[in-house]
Design brief:
mainly alpha; 15 helices; 0% strand
Amino acid sequence: MTPSAETPTAEIGAQFIRIALGHVGREYPHKLDHVMSSDADVLPPRVLHPAFHGSFDWHSCVHGWWTVLTLTRLHPALPEAAEAIARADETFTEEKLAGELAYLDRPLSGGFERPYGWGWLLYLHLEASRHVDKPWAARLEPLARAFAARLGHYLSILTYPIRTGTHFNSAFALALSLEWAEAFDHELADQIRAKAVNWFSGDADCQAWEPGGDEFLSSALSEALLMRRTLDAANFTDWFSRFLPHLAQRRPASLFTPAHVSDRSDGKIAHLDGLNLSRAWAWREIASATPELSQIAGEAAEAHLAAAMEHVEGDYMGEHWLASFALLAMLAQ
């Protein structure tokens, strides 16, 4: 499959909708983020999470639905879009989403999906709000507001950013959340920007000791992506020139080298396909903000995207989530 620098083609849109619809309602296998206080809490995913019990885990189900809604908006005439809309109508009901909200009220659910799932739920609500003829956004909003409140509190107590390239990465979750907050919660948007500047503005000469063996995010480029969205053009250019001062020489070399994936049936090792896709997303956004380095960043983006696109579909360990990251990369501006 040839990577597209523009809106995903109808062919890719149909493929990704089909992939996502194949897992957002698939309950098993499933990995729960679930703290139990008694035997009464031993419940199947569909009971714990009436709306988001598919896709191997809660957050993958959420961003699987983001993929579906985004592509039905971009390609409404696809035959797959009609099925997608019908499935969304069945999923985003008041009753099912009330069940998701009730789960958050459990005493031991304070750290549920923090912060990765929080960012993706906000991103899903943002996309749902673009479907103005549907009630999905209004029904999702109480859940989004609940996660936004949790994020605001979390940022008030989190002294140091989490830089690991997995679900706990602070910069990635904030990059998604900032886009939602700019539309729905300006106070939270200001808080995210302030935290990003506090955490990352002094970073310089990044060595980019990555990837780790199971990472799907680049610590370095996730941070750069957040700062790209936080700072104005002039300040980002200044910051980025200090953060990666040897980019013109394509150093650190690790950031220009797509990760090798040795076994796509191993869920953790399969994360590295996601690393290639998330790097492509970040490199494309950086390219658009740094004209003098746009060719270098753009070439790095295309190399990483090409390395992973043919593996979006195949083994379920990658198939239940990789299309979302490919779509992020293809939509990057």
